[in-house]
Amino acid sequence: MRHYEIVFIVHPDQSEQVPGMVERYKTMVTGRGGRVHRLEDWGRRQLAYPIQKMHKAHYVMMNIECDKEALAELEHAFRFNDAVLRHLTVAMREAVVAPSPMMKEEKAKSLSDRGDRGERGERSERRESAPVPAADAPAAAS
């Protein structure tokens, strides 16, 4: 079996149906003995250029391992689903399970948003109220 990375974008009006679509696509892959190594829902994002007069779309990325027949069935499902605006399949050398740069960016963005709202200050106050003994303090990561 081969490894693939698939990104597809869904019509913004169909965002509520994305979890059901993802489950259906996962079942197509696993039903033929394949595996889903990574699944990331990037949410609704701005498009680089309008597609069918849409400026935003819902993005989903999957890293899968499957045979050619399962991949053909999956791409057939993408083609005949009107909600899927575009899809891209890339063959990979090995399974990728680490978070993508898009998810790392989202995590960093959510952490900085918390800091802007003052939650970091609350966290530091809690640290001051309950000091950690020097012998039990974790070593700093380099």
Short characterization:
The chain is α+β, with helices and mostly antiparallel strands and 142 residues long. The protein has four helices and four strands; from the N terminus they run βαββαβαα.
Query: Strand count, sense and closure of the main sheet?
Result: 4 strands, antiparallel
Total beta strands: 4
Q: What number is the mean pLDDT?
A: 83
User: Which strand order does the major sheet show?
Assistant: 2-3-1-4
Describe the structure.
There is one protein chain. The chain has 142 residues and is of the alpha+beta class. Helices cover 37% and strands 34% of the residues. It is built from four helices and four strands; from the N terminus they run E-H-E-E-H-E-H-H. It has helices at 18-31, 68-79, 101-116, 119-129, and strands at 2-10, 35-51, 54-66, 84-92. The protein has a four-stranded antiparallel sheet with strand order 2-3-1-4. A hairpin with a 2-residue loop joins strand 2 and strand 3 (54-66). The chain is globular and about 45 Å long. The relative contact order is 0.21. Mean pLDDT is 83; it is low at 119-130.
